[in-house]
Write a structure and sequence with these properties.
Layout lengths: L1 E5 L6 H12 L2 E4 L1 H13 L7 H8 L4 E6 L2 E6 L2 E2 L7 H10 L3 H15 L4 E5 L2 H5 L5 E6 L2 H14 L6 H17 L12 E4 L5 H14 L2
Parallel strand pairs: 1-6, 1-7, 2-6, 7-8
Antiparallel strand pairs: 3-4, 4-5
Helix pairs in contact: 1-9, 2-4, 7-8
Amino acid sequence: MIIAIDGPAGVGKSTVAKLLARRLGYLYLDTGALYRAVAWKALQSRIRPADHAQVATLLLTTSIHMQFHQGAMQVLVDGFDVTGQLRTPEVTAAASIVSAIPAVREWLLPIQRQIGQGGSVVAEGRDIGTKVFPSASFKFFLEADADVRVARRHRELVAAGRGESIEATSHDLSTRDHRDRTRSVDPLVPAMDARFIDTSTLSPDQVVEQMIAAVSTGS
C-alpha cells in the first residue's frame, strides 16, 4: 500500500509522514530530498538553479539514488552520500527553483516510482497523489492557516540557527507557494480523491490518528 501526503510548506507534512511511517512500519519517502539533491549538484557545479537549459544538461551526467537503512533514508548523488548537506539555506532556496523545471520533474519521476514499486511506503511532497502515485491507496492533502504555517516555519528556522525575521519567513513562504501552485508542470493541487486535513489546531499525533483511522476503515 502507498499512502500519499501532499500540501504546501509549513503544514507539517514531513513530521506527520515520518510518524505515520513509523506507526505503520512503512518506508518514509521524502520526495523533496530528491529535488534538494538536484539543487545541491547544480550549486556544486556552479550552475544557476534558474538556468533551465544548464540544469537539464547537468542531469545527463548525474545519478541520484535513495537507500534505506533501518528506516532511515540516505540520498546519494553520483555515489556520494549527501544527506547531511541537503538542508542548508542555499540548497533549500535552490531546490524550490529547480523543482519548477519540467525536465527535472520528469527526470525524477521514475526514481520516485521505483521506490514505491514494493509498496508499504508513506510518500510526501507536492504532486504525490496527482502525478507520482496517482493510484495510491490513500491520499491526504494537508492545509493550515497562513499565519500558523509562517509561525511553524519560523520556529524551524530559529531552531536550525537561522535567525531571520518572521517577515522574511512570510515572504519566502508566499513566494514558494506561488511558485508551487503556478508552475506549468504538476502544480500543487489536491488530488480529486484526496482527504483534506486542516492541521492548524492539531498536533502531529492528532493528524496521524486521523490518517490511521481513515486507513483502518478504508474511508
